[in-house]
Each structure stands twice: as C-alpha cells, then as structure tokens.
Amino acid sequence: MNTAIVGTGYVGLVSGACFAEMGLNVVCVDTNEDKINKLKQGIIPIYEPGLDELVERNYKSGRLSFSTDLISILDDVQIIFSAVGTPPDKDGSADLQYVLEVARTIGRNMNDYKLIVTKSTVPVGTAKLVKQVIKEELDKRGLDISFDVASNPEFLKEGAAIKDFMSPDRVVVGVESEKAKTLLTRLYKPFLLNNFRVIFMDIPSAEMTKYAANAMLATRISFMNDIANLCELVGADVNKVRMGIGTDTRIGTKFLYAGCGYGGSCFPKDVKALIKTANENGYNLRVLNAVEDVNESQKEVLFNKLLKHFNGDIAGKTVALWGLSFKPDTDDIREATSLVLIDRIIKAGGKVKTYDPVAMDEVKHRIGNVVEYAADLYEAVLGADALLLVTEWKEFRLPSWVVVKKIMNQPVVIDGRNIYDSQEMTEHGFSYYCIGK
To answer: What pTM does this model have?
Structure first.
C-alpha cells in the first residue's frame, strides 16, 4: 500500500517513519526544499528520541522517501495524509490555509480514487471543507472521480512519539464510507495485532475527540495548579493532596502534577481553538476559559516567588534557568514557561543564564543573545543569585548541591516542577521554594 504524508513537521515525519517501519512505502512531502534536502542527508529538523535512526534505516531501505512535489507522486499513492501545520490565528482559531491548499492540489491533479486523511489537529467541520474544496476543483476539470475524506487525529506525546505510534492505546478514525474504513483498517492492523483498538466514528466526532482529549489534560494541569496555589495559602502540601486524590480510581494519577504551567504545540493552541469554535457557535466554554487563565498566570509564579525573595527588586541579579523546553525530551519551546520568565526577569533588570540539554539553539534562534547560554548545568549557576528549575530533565534530578551552593552567589532555588526534597534542600543551606507547599 503506497502512502503519501504531506507535511514533515512533528506529526508527519514521525508518522511517515513509523508507517515505513511496518513495511509501507511512504513518501513524505514538504514544500520546504531545504528541509527535504536535509532529510535526504539524514538531518532531522526536530528532536525526538530514536527518530533519526528510524528515518535513516527506512530511507536506506527505500520504504521511506522525500519529495517537494505532491503532484508528481499523486498517481502512485492511494492514501494521502495531510499533516501540515494549523497555527493559531490572532483570534485563537486554527489557520486552515495549508490544509485547504493540500486539498486544492489534490483536486486539481488526481486521476483516480484517493482517500484523503486529515492528521493535523483541525476544528470540527474541516473534513467537510476539504471535501468541498476537492469537489470544486474536480468540477472545474469536468471530472467525476470518487474520493473519500477521513479524520485520523494523532495522540503522540513529544519525547515518546515513536512508542505511542507503534503501540497506541487507541487509534481514532472518523470515516463516512465503508471503503475508507476498510482501507484504514488494513493500514493500522499491523500496529494492533494483539489488541485491535481502532475506534471508528463519524468524522465530526473524531475531529472533536482530539480537541476534547487535549482540553481535558490541560484542565487537569490547571486544576492542580489552582489547588497548589491554595495549598500554599492554607498550609497544605499539594504533593500529598495529589497522592490522596490520585488513588481514587475515578480520578487517577496522570496529569495531576502541579508546576509552572503547560506549554508546547498542542495544549495552548487546542484550548484556544476549542474556545473559538464554541464562541462561533454561540456557546461559552466557561471551564476552558478558566483553564487558560490559570495557565497564563501560572507561568509567572516562579517570577513572583523570585521577586518576593528579593523584596521586589532583582535589578542587577543573575538568575539561572535550568530547562528551556516546555517539557523534557524535546527541543520544543512553543508557549514555554521559560520564555515568559526570561522576558519578566530582563524587564525587571535581571540577567539570565540558561542551560538546556537540547533546546538552547531553538531559544537562541527565537530571542538571540539576550541571555547567556551555558555549556552545562553547573556553568549556568556559576555566580548566580538564584536558580529556577523550569524543565524537569533527568540530568537535573541529582545535581551535586555542595558544588551548586559553592559556586552560586546566593543559595536560592525555586523549583518549578517539585522534583527536589524541601528538607534536603534546607539541610544543604538553600532558601528553597516550590509549588503548592
């Protein structure tokens, strides 16, 4: 079964490499010629553990190839996944220009049956628009060629995307024909031989499922952050509260960790888009509006703790940041808390030294040299007046606190992910602050 995936971003590249690993012939298509040339050379544009080896292996085998020209390979493929970007517009809605351009290209050039599958995160009703655009282009050509559209949203976690794709806990597919259902069943069966967990549904429900899933996870995070802030005021420990409620099987433990706010390419964008969709349909998603408000304010919690420690004045202070990416095992800095902190600290007259295992190039590309980039975690804290733990990379879990204290100007640690023990930090002589305690 020959397949094309349009878009070589996070979703497209991971999907293409994993499909090829299971024996499919996959062409990954992107209009960015430089990116395609680099992929042919084995240069991966994103950081994802194991992805470079997977791409290299399947490219050498011939199952995975790269192209800038969708038209030239259209006759050779039956299934086309659209995995192009859907960045947020200024009003929070998803920008569908790239999705619809793919549809136009297909409609203008297809000569036989195609199944067009939307894998990008798109608002409810997008598949209907895609179908309409393709039909309009076929009508202009005076052709009546059958085709199907489907929705197959991804549920990949950055940092564990390959495992999630190869062993999914579920595959959600929205279809409106038996032919499309049969093709997608054949496509995914090799991934699910032990427990076939493809959930078929109508297309609008599949489109909504992706948004609802991310919105629920974002809600759990903001809920715990809200509770954490109250815990600090009343003398409770949010870590103990989390354990207490997480053992309730109706609640569970996942995504109940208090911290300094969520970021990334999915949660912020999808919450905004879902709120926008509701507004367009005359409905106010009150819970999600609150989720977004809590998250935006939570990104400033570490800065507020920093200011409080220094009595409202950090002018001339050097602040070290451990971690820049929005989460570990990725170089993604979209909507990252670190960017908010850097902005606030610099505007308040402070200096920033940073260290992140993989995301420093991304930050440098975004903001330049307004901060100092350290070679390792110890260089970052050398001469610092305070340390802010922003991203819980594994290498930050057990530093030598004896060394850290010795080389810092002042022994102040503000833990944005609650990974350190407060008693141990106090015994080492640090002024220690965390979330929700």
So the answer is: 0.89
